[in-house]
Amino acid sequence: MKMKYFHMKNQSVTGWGLIFERGTIMKKIALDALGSDKRPNPEILGAIKALRENDDILIYLIGKEEILHNKLRKFQYDTRRLKIINADQEVRMSESPTKALREKKNSSIKIGMDFLKKEADAFISAGNTGALMTHALMQIGRIKEIKRPAISTIIPTPYGETILIDSGANADAKPIHLLQFAIMGEIYAKIVFNKKNPKIGLLSNGEEEKKGNKLTKETNKLLKKHSKLNFIGNVEGRDILSGEVDVVVCDGFTGNIVLKTVESIFKFIFKIFKTEIANHLLAKIGLLLLKPSLKRLLKKMDYSEFGSAPLLGIKKPVLVAHGTSDEKAIKNSINFTYKYISEDFSKMLHEEIKDLDIDK
User: How far is CA 73 from the centre of its chain?
Assistant: First the structure.
């Protein structure tokens, strides 16, 4: 397909953008190059790989320009579709989100959000989640009807996928917030996985209505009153990977612990499996026969296949990647974001929410 060039209106970005002759505008994805634990290598390599898989995206690496230029010289890539926007400061995982917002005016998160507000279609970061949330709220803003945005994480299971919301954006929450999380999670499940009537579960320490703390008990009552939701009641930790529930609702403090625990379980099982095979000759022989099936299973259970999770409730797409993301996870994060903005999920979510009496 032939392409023609146009100069970017935003003078802070030099170079040329691309537009398809048939009128399909390139999708612009801003990527925080100062986010992951091993920054900026995973971001650079992941971006280059994503460009090879998608011919209608522009990726903007937000980070220290000189370092990024020096590293990029070692690789072959489409220089017309991979750009750099300078950001001298990074927000470390240990930093206060509000302090970073106040004092670091040239951080990669701040610059990335500015670019998202003006021009980009989405912003991805594997950095400080609290800072990402704070900057998104202050610079982009939330959908009017939503009181608290939430991170919606896809957890792979042998039976499909389970959506966990909130997985880290709100350490403290009220029942009305969890009700809204459930509504956003339901809409997200419908849009992303084509679930016609997603089953919603409230995470608690028992299936009975009387189990749980004050938050879960009050939330349970609210969810039962919301007739449009397919609320199946309280669910326990063991139900998350069972395939019996599509959306698991909880506060961000609990959700983040659950998420990290599930990830560690996957890694633990894989490590034990490798050790057992290494110590037994018959197991090594059997592995040759099982290898194709095991590869499919491991791929299905690998969190990096999805790469990132959207911060639902924000006006424009902001996606949170894992701090430990490698190049594969970053590439898949970009691919997921590409699909997210291609289908205009944020607009669809906004329209669905507007039609709901979300406070009741």
Answer: 29
Q: Tell me: the pLDDT tens digits for 346-357?
A: 888 877 777 666
Q: What is the dihedral of CA 48, 52, 58, 61, to 10 degrees?
A: -10
Name the residue with higher pLDDT: 359 or 105: 105
Query: 293: domain CATH number?
Result: 3.40.718.10
Sheet with strand 231-235: strands edge to edge: 82-86, 57-63, 27-32, 122-125, 318-321, 308-312, 150-157, 160-165, 247-249, 200-203, 231-235
Same domain, residue pair 119 and 65: yes
Give the SS3 label for residue 267: helix
Distance between terminal CA atoms of the chain?
Answer: 50
Tens-place pLDDT, residues 66-77? 999 999 999 999
Tokens coding 59 = 């990726």
More confident: 155 or 114: 114
- Are residues 162 and 91 both part of a single domain? no
Token pair, residue 289, equals 């026969």
* Exposed/middle/buried for residue 68 (C-beta within 10 Å: 0-12, 13-18, 19+): buried
CB atoms within 10 A of CB 288: 8
Domain span at residue 90 reads 23-146+313-343
Q: 136 and 155: one domain?
A: no
pTM of the model: 0.85
Question: Which stretches of 256-356 are assigned E, i.e. beta strand?
Answer: 308-312, 318-321
Does residue 68 sit within a domain? yes
Is 187 found in the same domain as 161? yes
Q: Specify whether 271 is located in the same domain as 205.
A: yes
